[in-house]
Design a protein that fits this description.
Chain lengths: ~260, ~250
């Protein structure tokens, strides 16, 4: 009986310890980032490089994702709209889900998969090839030089990509509504504007900000914590992707709970 | 030779439950080139990283110009590290920067010199190491020997007071290894304290004035080559055996 219990308990214990270590380490890293921002002490050239790498290179995938998000929302609601003839609800339904829920989550997951995983791999490779040690040997703080520019770039670009994604999601929704449901794009967009979805839009941006913080901190924490060679980098990338996805859903839940909209 | 630039007192370092360095006492003086030798995996690179403050000791302390590295805050540690040049075993070149930017990096970050002067110093140092033609190449476009020379140029471009070389000839052919050691000799300044970790004892003999041998994390020999006659048999066997092996390899 005792042996039957010890196995699961030790598994749960180890998982809890791992979770606490991740949360504690990531929180301490966030503290060091904020300390480096007051007053701002970071490399501006590196910040520009990161803004380009994170934002410009991610815009295409975010636009494509957003187009499909809008299109899917129309497809999901088209059946009911056609049956009931309530075409005026199409704009509200699409706007609400795109701005507040599905848009931020899917764009956050795409951003995490593309930028967060890449960031963990890049920093992890820098650790195992001693480039991070080289920075420290040159009296340069790796947090200020490597992490802070990434932190700023990911937050700024997550917000901008979210705003861009909202626009493309509406374009995707308008094109699909016109093609499948026979609702003119101008009618759909007019419905969205008339639905007064500013709270939903701001909630979506708030979520994007929090996703940017969590993706940047967690991906940097896993990257800088790499031990071993290529295997260690692979393990860190895997852990980073899983942790970021979990964090996105958790943040979405908490923010939806604290800031209920559409009620 | 003036006072000790670096002093280790009872230095110990462990990873998990394994002690890699134990009770290491060591002085590195300005003006000398110290050769750190010993079998692979016996703590030489770990000791070098402790000397640079890249690893924190688990016992004892490392003093640089009398300052205990463990007691310095981040800014104090950064101030001390500005005196260092470090050549890494695996080059550690920043792979997203060109050769020019790699070598200019310490000057741009620390020295606050006018851009024209930085460019001139970078070009001159790369010419010193025979890479004047490689300014705009990326690290992935360089051979192993070229990467070592870029690493050496980056470490020495600021004329540091303390120079640490971690196995500078590792993985290089004999001709390139000889060139690297010639460069180490040429880059050495009388006021600088230099430590070279290597297995290439034959070539170390052309630059090192004193040797420290580590075995299982302990210092088993500390002195000039002339003192080897009084050293334990295992030290002499390692020293002359390794030198002989390199001579045969050439």
């Amino acid at each position: 009986m005792r042996n039957v219990l010890v196995g699961p308990v030790s598994v749960v214990g180890r998982a809890s310890m791992g979770l606490m270590a991740t949360l504690g380490g990531a929180t301490m890293l966030l503290g060091r980032i904020l300390r480096a921002l007051l007053p701002p002490r970071f490399d501006r050239d590196e910040a520009w490089r990161q803004l380009y790498a994170v934002g410009v290179k991610s815009s295409a995938i975010v636009m494509v994702t957003a187009l499909f998000v809008g299109a899917i929302m129309v497809i999901q609601t088209a059946f009911y709209v056609q049956r009931t003839g309530a075409t005026s609800l199409l704009g509200f339904g699409v706007g609400f889900t795109v701005f507040a829920e599905i848009g931020p989550i899917l764009i956050g997951l795409m951003f995490s998969g593309r930028v967060g995983a890449n960031n963990t791999a890049e920093l992890g490779t820098m650790v195992v090839t001693e480039q991070v040690d080289a920075l420290r040997a040159l009296a340069i703080d790796p947090i200020g030089y490597l992490v802070v520019p990434r932190f700023i770039a990911m937050i700024v670009m997550m917000l901008m990509l979210m705003a861009l994604g909202d626009v493309f999601a509406i374009i995707g929704a308008a094109l699909t509504a016109d093609t499948l449901v026979g609702v003119d794009p101008s009618v759909l967009i007019g419905d969205i504007l008339d639905s007064h979805l500013l709270d939903e839009y701001l909630l979506g941006l708030g979520k994007a900000f929090c996703f940017g913080v969590s993706i940047s901190v967690l991906s940097c924490w896993y990257g800088l914590g790499v031990r071993g060679g290529a295997t260690g980098v692979g393990r860190a990338v895997n852990n980073s992707v899983v942790a970021n996805a979990a964090a996105i859903f958790f943040i979405d839940f908490v923010m939806g709970w604290i800031f209920p909209v559409g009620l | 030779m003036s006072g000790a630039a670096i002093r280790c007192e009872g230095l110990g370092k462990r990873f998990d439950d394994t002690w890699v360095l134990r009770d290491v006492d060591l002085d590195v003086y300005r003006g000398e080139v110290l050769g750190l030798i010993g079998p692979g995996g016996h703590g030489k690179s770990v000791l070098l990283k402790c000397l640079a403050g890249l690893l924190s000791p688990d016992a004892g302390r490392v003093l640089v110009d009398g300052e205990d590295l463990a007691r310095l805050g981040p800014l104090g540690l950064a101030r001390v590290r500005e005196q260092y040049g470090y050549v890494f075993q695996n080059y550690a070149l920043f792979d997203f920067m060109s050769v020019r930017d790699n070598v200019a990096f310490p000057l741009r970050q620390q020295a606050h010199l006018p851009p024209a002067e930085i460019d001139a110093r970078v070009a001159a140092r790369l010419a010193d190491v025979g890479l004047a033609h490689a300014l705009d190449l990326l690290p992935r476009e360089l051979s192993g020997g070229m990467k070592k020379r870029v690493g050496l140029a980056r470490a020495t471009v600021g004329d540091p007071a303390i120079l640490l070389y971690d196995d500078p000839s590792a993985g290089l052919d004999p001709v390139t290894s000889s060139k690297i050691f010639q460069l180490i000799a040429r880059m050495h300044r009388p006021a600088a304290a230099t430590v070279v970790v290597s297995h290439d004892i034959d070539r170390m003999r052309s630059v090192c004035s004193r040797y420290v041998m580590l075995e299982h994390g302990h210092v088993v020999f500390d002195g000039p080559e002339a003192a080897l006659a009084d050293a334990p048999e295992s030290v002499r066997a390692f020293f002359f055996g390794a030198a002989h092996k390199h001579l045969e390899g050439r």
